[in-house]
Amino acid sequence: MSDAERYERGMVVRREVLSDAHVDRANESITEFTGDFQDFITRTAWGDIWSRPELDRRSRSVAVLTAMIALGHHDEFEMHVRAARRNGLTVAEIKEVILQAGLYCGVPAANTAFKLAERVLRDLGDVR
């Protein structure tokens, strides 16, 4: 598969997982400095990894949420809570992911994740 084909496949998956609005905002902010990185993540993260058939998107979302909690990547965590909902995870399943991560990643990390996830889920209208 060519780089152009991987990019196109990646853009389709990226839009399905993150939403057209999110990807459009990201693309509008591309500069000469950041363009190569945006091309790289579209081809590699979305066109290669997220496109592999061995894990479904729900499973990938569980893995990504856990990694973002463990590493303290709060902005990415919030983005991927939205993506997890788009990928079919329920609010209860997201809660269980955070509880599980709390056991292995630490209570402070889970505490922050609960706060961030609740804010996102409230914005989505999924919790009060």
UniProtKB/TrEMBL annotation:
Carboxymuconolactone decarboxylase-like domain: residues covered: 36-118
Superkingdom of the organism of origin: Bacteria
Swiss-Prot/TrEMBL keywords: Lyase
EC number(s) per entry: 4.1.1.44
GO molecular function, one term: 4-carboxymuconolactone decarboxylase activity
Pfam families: CMD
NCBIfam families listed in its UniProt record: decarb_PcaC
Protein name: 4-carboxymuconolactone decarboxylase
Gene designation per UniProt: pcaC
